[in-house]
Design a protein that fits this description.
The chain is mostly helical. The protein has helices at about 20-30, 45-50, 55-70, 105-115, 125-135, 145-155, 155-180, 185-200, 210-220, 230-245, 255-265, and strands at about 85, 95, 100, 275-280, 280-285.
Length: about 290
Amino acid sequence: MQIPPVGQSSRRAVLLVPALAVALVPALVGTGTAHASDSMPSTRASVVAASVDLTDPHKKDIAMQLVSSAENSSLDWKAQYKYIEDIDDGRGYTAGIIGFCSGTGDMLDLVELYAKNKPGNVLAKYLPALRKVNGTDSHSGLDPNFTKDWVTAAKDTVFQQAQNSERDRVYFNPAVQQAKADGLRALGQFIYYDAIVMHGPGNDSVSFGGIRKTAMKKAKTPAQGGNETTYLNAFLDARKAAMKTEEAHSDTSRVDTEQRVFLKAGNLDLNPPLTWKVYGDSYTIKS
């Protein structure tokens, strides 16, 4: 299977400050809750209410498979707890189910949580080094055994749960909460989630908040009375523009031959079967 040339952490365009993730939810939700106009169909609210959103366990698993197809060239996202390498993107080590990076703060938060839940674990001794390398691509204090110890830790269900928890806290929950506030169904929620995984939370032009802001200049969200498909096309246009500002994001197939395919098909509830391509590789989720 072809591995994307940029590796699996083609995600954050800037180094994340850990506090950004915490601040994201109230900052974003506060900007996207305008009431729908009188011109909206009266059935809109009932349709959205009846839809199964991305927090449904099966839908969430689909979302994780979709992200993994782009980040790992595999639908087996649970096999990625043990993944770790430096892909030379300036973010140090990239690891785990969502591409936690030693240079962007989220790996540090993860290992701190693991140490809190299981003191004395195999990664706890690296916390001083992770604090020092945060914001850089340095391996100082991590080599030569950090990668080996990460793989060992990945066998521990406590560490797996810590990865799940940080994924939800920093990426999944803020993305889905904002999408629901914007009146988006499961596909739109996934589109937001995939964007925040790659670009990170934040409000500069190439982070999730900035991409959303650019899209809203072109089209209204459903919560503002806009058409859902029109708005999502505007969001994907804005995301592609952001991706193209960085070489590591220049392949936009996860938008062009994945998300746009579902959108063109009118599959706003992200219902399987789903067939798509990323980096030239074909994938299917049958049910």
